[in-house]
């Protein structure tokens, strides 16, 4: 089992594999997940429960338990940090991107994506983790801003 240490780094990998490459299937849909539990209006549910600025427990559990085979991790050549990622919307459906909810806190998981060549959003990453650009460069990963 591949264990990620940084949940938000894992979400970047999931975004690439599940929503961009479509190789990690099936794609998770919080709306479908909640409909199966009797919740018809996800946004209304989130607002009624005061969960606007949190990762929903159902999404956290799903993505924490999600197994990503090493063979798929080896296909990741690029990661992107962008506040508009689908995986962020699935985790926090009404998140506005104005806080640090999805900030990456550690680059310890870089070893899990051995063929990573590019990281788009490196300027944002540098704000989250001072020295991130140097860490990426030392691993041969080109940072794009």
Number of strands: 3
Helix proportion: 40-55%
Strand fraction equals: 5-15%
Overall pLDDT: 96
Structural class: mainly alpha
Strand order of the largest sheet: 1-2-3
Report on the biggest sheet: 3 strands, parallel
Distance between the termini: 32 Å
Shape: globular
Radius of gyration: 15 Å
> What's the tally of helices?
8
Low-confidence stretches: none
Q: How do the helices and strands follow one another from N- to C-terminus?
A: HHHHHEHEHHE
Descriptive overview:
The chain is mainly alpha-helical. The chain has helices at 7-20, 30-35, 42-49, 57-65, 70-73, 86-91, 122-128, 132-138; strands spanning 78-80, 118-120, 142-144. The protein has a three-stranded parallel beta sheet. The longest helix has 14 residues, at 7-20. It is globular, with a radius of gyration of 15 Å. The model has no long low-confidence stretch (mean pLDDT 96).
Write a brief structural summary:
The chain has eight helices and three strands, in the order αααααβαβααβ. It is mainly α and 145 residues long.
Question: In terms of topology, how is this protein built?
Answer:
Elements: H1 7-20, H2 30-35, H3 42-49, H4 57-65, H5 70-73, E1 78-80, H6 86-91, E2 118-120, H7 122-128, H8 132-138, E3 142-144
Parallel strand pairs: 1-2, 2-3
Summary keywords:
145 residues, mainly alpha, 8 helices, 3 strands, 42% helix, globular
């Amino acid at each position: 089992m591949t264990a990620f240490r940084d949940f938000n780094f894992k979400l970047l990998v999931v975004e690439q594999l599940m929503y961009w490459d479509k190789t990690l299937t099936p794609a998770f849909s919080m709306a479908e997940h909640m409909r199966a539990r009797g919740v018809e209006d996800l946004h209304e549910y989130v607002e009624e429960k005061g969960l606007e600025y949190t990762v929903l427990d159902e999404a956290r559990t799903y993505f924490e338990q999600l197994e990503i085979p090493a063979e798929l991790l080896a296909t990741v050549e690029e990661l992107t940090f962008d506040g508009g990622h689908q995986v962020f919307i699935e985790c926090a459906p009404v998140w506005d991107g104005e806080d640090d909810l999805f900030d990456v806190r550690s680059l310890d998981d870089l070893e899990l994506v051995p063929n990573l060549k590019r990281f788009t959003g490196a300027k944002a990453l540098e704000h989250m983790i001072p020295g991130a650009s140097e860490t990426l460069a030392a691993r041969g990963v080109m940072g794009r801003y």
